[in-house]
Design a protein that fits this description.
Length: 97
């Protein structure tokens, strides 16, 4: 599991991006299929909610997909809301998602 910029790691064995925070680990679970990242679930420790942690990990995942030339499927409602607030990521979204 390689450490990446901003403290986010891609734990490929568990198919999730991870960000250690006080009180635990924030995660963004994904499935990688047919050259796309299906972003399925974001979770932040309750005591750290509302501090931008979820946004940091989602942004990292989107930038990772972009740098790898991948599309994303925002199945997680939090990820979908993030993309709605940051339309610069619209081109990454798989058609029909």
């Amino acid at each position: 599991m390689a450490q990446e910029e901003g403290g986010v790691t891609d734990n490929k064995q568990q198919s999730r991006f991870e960000l250690p925070v006080d009180g635990g680990t924030a995660v963004l679970q994904y499935m990688e299929r047919n050259g796309a990242l299906y972003l399925t679930h974001t979770e932040v420790p309750r005591e750290m909610e509302g501090q931008g942690i979820g946004g940091r990990i989602v942004k990292h995942a989107l930038e990772e997909a972009k740098s790898r030339g991948m599309k994303v499927a925002p199945w997680c409602p939090f990820v979908r809301a993030y993309i709605n607030r940051h339309p610069e990521y619209d081109p990454l979204v798989l058609e029909g998602e």
